[in-house]
TrEMBL record:
It catalyses: alpha-D-ribose 1,5-bisphosphate = D-ribulose 1,5-bisphosphate. The active site is at 121 (proton acceptor), 190 (proton donor). The keyword Plastid does not apply. This is Ribose 1,5-bisphosphate isomerase. Substrate binds at residues 18-21, 57, 200-201, 226. It comes from Archaeoglobus veneficus (strain DSM 11195 / SNP6).
């Protein structure tokens, strides 16, 4: 029975399933399948499954919110709990599926005709904005960074090409060189904190800084399930560091006195962000607190764990 969860966790851990939205949806789908397979001791088994999934990607708040939403199931017995958990998983999956369409339409309206856009990593939400803007004649070309070391930018240009959108792939270190040719930067998000800061793929903060200097609007496309309730209570976002072998060959790793570090994410201050595009509208980063409070809902710490009660799912 736990094979369902273990296999899913491995796909998230090894980045076979990547991207905050895809991870969140995949986690909800996994918990749904697992709930349907549990025959007894429903609470105990579901808690164990949730813990396995939660431990895969500590920075991805979308994973936390997806699991937390499903795990708020209710019922008097195992049958009722199973039914409610499956229902909540399906609700969350629909939320993921409809958010991108709304974000695309809202974000596209903020882009002028025939603009050049730069993007980073491989964000389905950011691509939703870019694709919709292209359909409306608002995007003429896209600069996409390689996004080392996992090269998610290669996925992005392939997706842009399939959509018929002219794209230029650049190395991460060339952002400052090309920023003067760009009208907008559109990126996704792994986490939005309570104070409006953005946690995203490593290199995002450098792009935001270059955009600020060049007076290029910096837009973040983020579903509201990427906002972090934990940060309301002072908890810091864990910046995941991945294996050094992703960025250096064995002959470098074996050098005496040489240390190789590979942070997967960085933090972009809210001062560098012009607007956050969500499925409920375009908001300034300062409104992150209200989104967390009103959209996700939150309660208090219970037995050392933050309990949230998501609401307004449609």
């Amino acid at each position: 029975m736990y094979q369902i969860v273990e296999e899913a966790a491995e796909k998230i851990r090894t980045m076979e399933v990547r991207g905050a939205a895809r991870i969140a949806k995949f986690a909800a789908e996994t918990l749904k399948k697992f709930a349907e397979a549990v025959e007894s001791n429903f609470d105990e088994n579901m808690n164990k499954a949730a813990e396995i999934l939660l431990n895969t990607r500590p920075t991805a708040v979308s994973l936390y919110n997806a699991i937390n939403y499903v795990m708020r199931y209710e019922g008097e017995n195992d049958a009722e709990k199973r039914e409610n958990a499956v229902k909540r998983a399906e609700e969350f999956i629909r939320w993921v599926e409809t958010a991108h369409e709304r974000i695309g339409k809202i974000g596209a309206r903020r882009i002028r005709k025939n603009s050049v856009v730069m993007t980073h990593c491989n964000s389905s939400a950011a691509l939703a904005v870019i694709k919709e803007a292209f359909r409306e004649g608002r995007v003429a070309e896209v600069f996409a960074t390689e996004s080392r070391p996992r090269l998610q930018g290669h996925l992005t240009v392939r997706e842009l090409s399939n959509a018929g959108i002219p794209a230029t792939l650049i190395v991460d270190s060339a952002v400052r060189y090309f920023i003067e040719d760009v009208d907008y930067v559109v990126v996704g998000a792994d986490t939005i904190t309570a104070n409006g800061a953005l946690i995203n793929k490593i290199g995002t903060s450098q792009i935001a800084l270059a955009a600020k200097e060049a007076r290029v609007p910096f837009m973040v496309a983020a579903e509201t399930y990427k906002f972090s309730p934990k940060t309301l209570f002072g908890e810091l976002v864990v910046i995941e560091e991945r294996d050094a072998s992703e960025v250096a060959p064995p002959e470098i790793l074996s050098l005496k006195g040489v240390r190789v570090r590979n942070p997967a994410f960085d933090a972009t201050p809210r001062e560098y962000i012009d607007v956050i595009i969500t499925e409920i509208g375009a908001i300034p980063p300062e409104m992150a607190y209200l989104v967390i409070k009103e959209r996700l809902g939150y309660a208090v710490f219970e037995e050392g764990e933050l309990k949230i009660s998501p609401k307004h799912f449609d």
